[in-house]
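Board notes (copied after class):
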Amino acid sequence: MNNLNFLSEFGLNDIQIKIYRYLLNYQFGTIEKIKEDLDYSYAQVRENVNLLEKQNFITSSEGKPKTYFRTNPKIVLTEILKKKNNKILEKINDLEQDLKTIESEKGICTRNITFYHHSDINIGLEYIYNLMGKTENEIILSSLPPSVLKKLERALYRAFLKGIKIKLYYSKLDFGSIENYFGQITDILKNINIEIIEISEKSCRFVRFNDLIVNEGVILIDFYFNSVLFIEDSCFHFNGFYMPNIAESVKKMFEAKTLLKSVEINPDPVQNVLDLIKHQPDIKTRELSIKSSIAGTKLREILEYLTDQGLIKEEKIKGEIGRPKKVYSIIE
């Protein structure tokens, strides 16, 4: 087993790391067995397995004595990292707002200031994820590299679940060597309700970046204007700001282009899942996944959305050995 000391950065102490390593190696164990093998007191093991279970590192059976099982480390640690990143991003946003307030009090105009300006693609994407999470009305995209659309797909999917209107404009003139761009983007965005519009003119414009002539694609998120600089499937730079007038004029410019065809992808996974639960009360997650052909994170997002909307209820099945099973029913 690789060194797990890095788990201290996730808040685990030495005893918890050793217990977790034990369960990773042996897959399961009781408090008594862990106590004997690791030479800790019963109280030490009980206290720390309870803390590990609260953080979803492990799960337990309902019987006596309880048996503790490892959960998928990648899923658990990824979720914890997301929460930490969200908290850090909130602090960064709070700091930005504080600076705006201070500058405004000093008489510095803060209207329409630059929102971000990054050649670090990951940081640029984080800003866009954050903006898409706060979208209230619509998202409009021009031709973007398939590699970027793949990275935006999850954020666009969440916006779709919220009922946000999404459009993508593209032209065959935007790419020289990418074959069947329409086929690629429809495959990437097949789970999202989106209108894909082909126009005869370029949907991007040429700009100079570091002595290169590149395409400037656009992402309009409500009144935020975001540009993406790229050549074919390689992305170089993100930049953007809050500018209602420019965003509105760019939107009108797209609408004035020569329309070649418009295709609407209109999947309805939310209604599909809701109908399955209606017709089969107390349906298990696994069966929902098989019947809806939706798996993993996307199914969890839909179930969380329906639960938050008060349309369904989630219950755990008691008495089953292993990881707790969940069933879903309609709230009458």
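Comment from the instructor: The chain is about 45% helix and 25% strand. The longest strand covers residues 212-221.
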